Amino acid sequence: MELFEAIDTRSSAARLVAPVPDAAQLDRILRAAGHAPDHGHMAPWRFIILDGPSRDRFADTIAASRRRRDPRAPAEAVEADRQKVLRAPMIIVVGCATQLDHPKIPEIEQVLAAGAATQNLLLAAHALGFGAVWKTGPAAYDPFVKSALGFAPTDHIIAMVHIGTAQVMNPVRPPQLGERVRRG
Asked: Which residue of 38, 63, 79, 176 is surrounded by the most CB atoms within 10 Å?
């Protein structure tokens, strides 16, 4: 798929099913992510692949996170959070292992690099014919979830990318152009 076609046609999948990327495809997707702009060549991104039993354990972690954050949450709400994880056959958690005391690269630039890696990941998955959805939510900011994934409290979960074969795609939205200013 040509670059601009991939950019112009990528949208989030509304429903994902198996198959997921095989080992070679997953390697290609992650190598594309690793080509993200990265001031200082820090490679702050971390990719955690969750499928099969690891995805099931992650769903349990998400449910426990909800119970910890909101002890009064109805059991149905906790189970709904758990089931959201299980809707995708594979999840790639993109984290950012930040170096807060770096003398030249501020935290925001490290986080933006991990965000750029996430965008490359999404485009690569799309180019290979897979559907993907960038998700976060309250669990992404929960120190309990970060710890369960091996992150430090100061690290960031940038995305929980749900990936698989798209059974239903959301419509491609028009580009959001934002403000443009040209100064002469």
From this structure: 63
Which has the closest alpha carbon to 155: 108, 99, 117? Answer: 99
Amino acid at 32: A
Alpha carbons 85 and 103: distance in angstroms, whole number: 38
Domain count, the chain: 1
Stated pTM of the model: 0.94
Comparing CA positions, the residue from 93, 15, 81 lying closest to residue 54 is 93
Question: What's at 3, amino acid-wise?
Answer: L
* Count of CB atoms situated within 10 Å of the CB of 147: 13
pLDDT in tens, 99-145: 999 999 999 999 999 999 999 999 999 999 999 999 999 999 999 99
User: Which of 120, 127, 117, 114 has its CA nearest to residue 157?
Assistant: 114
Contact predicate 128/6, CB 8 Å: no
- The three-point CA angle 130-162-177 to 5° equals 80
Please name which of 21, 9, 80, 81 lies closest in space to residue 51, comparing C-alpha atoms.
Answer: 21
How far apart, in whole angstroms, are the C-alpha atoms of residue 114 and residue 64? 26
Question: Kind of pairing, strands 90-96 and 156-169?
Answer: antiparallel
